[in-house]
Amino acid sequence: MASIPPVSITIDRGGTFCDVWAHTADGKETIFKLLSVDPASYPDAPTEGIRRVLEQITGQSIPKGQPIDGSLIESVRVGTTVATNALLERKGERFALLTTEGFRDICRIGDQTRPDLFDLNIRKPGVLYSQVIEVAERVTVEDYVLNPHPAEIDLSDPDLVKTASGEGGTSTDISRFDKVFEHVFDTTISGTTITSPMLDVKTVAAGGGSILSWRNGLFVVGPESAGAHPGPASYRKGGPLTITDANLFLGRLVPEKFPSIFGPHANEPLDVDVVKQKFHELTDEINDTLENKLTAEEVASGFLAMANETMSRPIRNITEARGFAINKHNLASFGGAGGQHACAIAQILGMPRIIIHKYSSILSAYGIGLADIVSETAVPAAYAFSEKTLDTVLARFEELKAQTRAELVAQGVQDGLVEHQCYLSMRYEGSDTNLSILQPQDNDFRTAFVETHRLYELAGLPPKSAFTGPALVIDNTQTILVETGCKVSVLNSHIIIDLPSKEATSSDSDTSINPVELSTFASRFMSIAEQMGNTLQRTSISTSIKERLDFSCALFTPDGKLVANAPHIPVHLGSMQFAIQHQHALWAGKLQPGDVLLTNHPECGGTHLPDLTVVTPVFAPTTTTSSSPGQEEAQDQQQLIFYVASRGHHTDIGGIGITSMVPDSKFLWQEGLSVRSMRIVHGGVFDEAGVRQAFADVVDYGPGCSATRRLDDNVSDLKAQIAANQRGIVLLQAMCREAGVPRVQRYMYGIQATAELAVRELFRRIAEERGAKESLSPSSPSPSHSSSSAPSSPPAAPAAPVVLRATDYYDDGTPITLAITIAPDPSPTPSTPLQYSATFDFTGTGPQTLGNMNCPPSITHSAVIYALRCLINLSIPLNQGCLAPVRIVLPRGTILNPTAGVAVCGSTIASQRVTDVILRAFGAAAGSACDEYEDDGCGGY
After folding, report:
1. Cβ–Cβ under 8 Å, residues 471 and 488
2. Beta bridge partners of residue 479, listed in sequence order
3. Sheet arrangement for strand 479-482
4. pTM for this one?
5. Which of the four CATH numbers 3.30.420, 1.25.40, 1.10.287, 3.50.50 does domain 7-86 have?
6. Which stretches does UniProt call biased (Low complexity) (predicted)?
């Protein structure tokens, strides 16, 4: 025993597997995996891993459950989620929150983020603190005022320390490395924002254990995970089909090479037979809804394609979304399932090379063993950068170096081996977007920041200079965004921007809908809307958009119908398309590339006036051949292929009040800026003077009106909305170059048909539950897949319509009355399966008021689409298809369809009441609370 060299053990405990790497001083290595959770075999995976390592190096049996002799262990490093689980389970140290009197619930309220926008049974994570102590004090502009005087509080109580443990799930982690590690200083875990420097790692709920399902005509991967217990179907514990099973079924895994650690006794290989059985059963279920039948192999391949697309999305977000070209990166793959997907993901993204380490399957454990001991610390600093303040910054760096050096030496690190990296968080004045700048050798932080930010003053660019985007070029009157890969050449009087060439996509004559591609395109469209939202949040100025997240971004068809709406604000989900359709009809044939429109009027598809909608048409080149006497000539024309739009709540737009949420307004003109339609960008030139004048003209609306007090913020946020739209345009045009416009648009309409199918299925199910006598097949064919397959026998006569009723009231007694009639559509032929639709009839609703609780029609449509999505309770695309089988009746002159010119800023209240009435009619939820209308403090109506 004495001759055995000491062993160093590193363990990474993941959601499915616990990876173990052990090595001794003589170079011998031990590598294996075990399930992270296997209660029938061992209580704790890391402890079991250590026991097995010692058994292997000593050659002696060590009984389970017995104390382990640690004399042969030199070190143990464990990567685990203990700290994260303590946060998730709220089992960390007990502490109290001291806050200003009146703000005891500030952490509980948080911002406008909701854990799940469509969950009717929200369970927000609890707060971290055990007690709140309110302090009678104020923080004013001039000083900090405390009354009474503070009491001394001892925070050294030894009884505060506790421990916690837990387990994780299965996911894919993604990060970017370019010579230096990229850090973030804010991250959110289980609803809690953590302000601490950490590596910028993005996690997506798609991995080997992600569960596969077929929902409403779409292949769905995750976000639910089978974990380690029961695990995938092949693990012999009765688990569901997962990505691992799909790889096994298609021969991408060799069962004989997989560790025999499965089954009730953890000693059996993967079960191939049960995987084959389950995939054939799932294929039969899918083929029941399709005319063009799929094989089980095609189904498994489809799920893998969807998983690859899901894993590609965050890679785009950390590269393209930040201005880095994906094709300039290599893909380093690791993890047990990484090698099975690396080639497909690299091909999707156009990455030229894949790097796979020999220990890639246990790379996290291997990396833990090789990792340096690191001490990180940060201190707040607020300086206007100058030579004088730089000296102060450098002095602070030396203090931090001394502090971290002492911490490392205390952990046994030799003083001479300590190295330091210093970062300075910098931003332009007026911006709150920071960049972390690594200390240059010459301490020229200013140059390093400017080079990183890539902001050029137009007047300072000499002729013949050139650079490549991404970059911003500015002067006193304009801002020019240079996209990634675009090359700028500066001349005497103007600049030239050359765009990177793209290979033309061949024409697409196939008009069929492939369910695998349908799922992939649905994911791509939603990803574009989400990236638009990320751009808007990062580039906006106002607290309302940047912190309260009161905005939405969406994509629309060429005629203005909703295609994809990132799940931001419920009231925007179905209402924005009415604004787009109004602008489309108003500007038909008049728009060109580089045009941007602004609207917020409730009669033009708006909600309340503070919600400003910025609309941008998306064009793609198309070539036509024109003939004239004696010659034929090919002409390039621009085809309108999409609209993109962003809607953001502007805190102040003028009016008779000090904010745009006026409690006593009676007419629309009293509530601030109202714009039916305004072209704010024409040919790529922002009409800032016109925008500022429009805000200034509010003072002439009527007695007591004033202009906005935050005009610069309004202009900046509009520019941010324009930038968000431009981001969507770039991504849509890239998709069209890749797949071709006809193919993209075909799947665009196919996704709408899929959403329609999901809503019709909901109506069918409710009709059956509430009294429909017709016996229907489990599902009806999707319009995007087939409409000609016949059932085995003709359906019986249609059942009588089902009517659901509900009424709710405003505080003043004004009723909102709803009757929902669900009935089968007339069948074109006796053999056609029944399709159900519904009429939402608000007849009986009270009249409009001489106040501001009136509700524009677009808001009621939003409430309907939101309620339907909540009732479906599955991840489906949010688009016009949800309303295709719906008819909404809103009598004119009622509070839900008021006449022109009435005040509407209180529609925040109305939207909640309408939603409550709909959910009550379906028997889905009781009436909720309402919006904090006094100060708009809770938002999120």
Report:
1. yes
2. 474
3. 455-457, 471-474, 479-482
4. 0.65
5. 3.30.420
6. 777-791
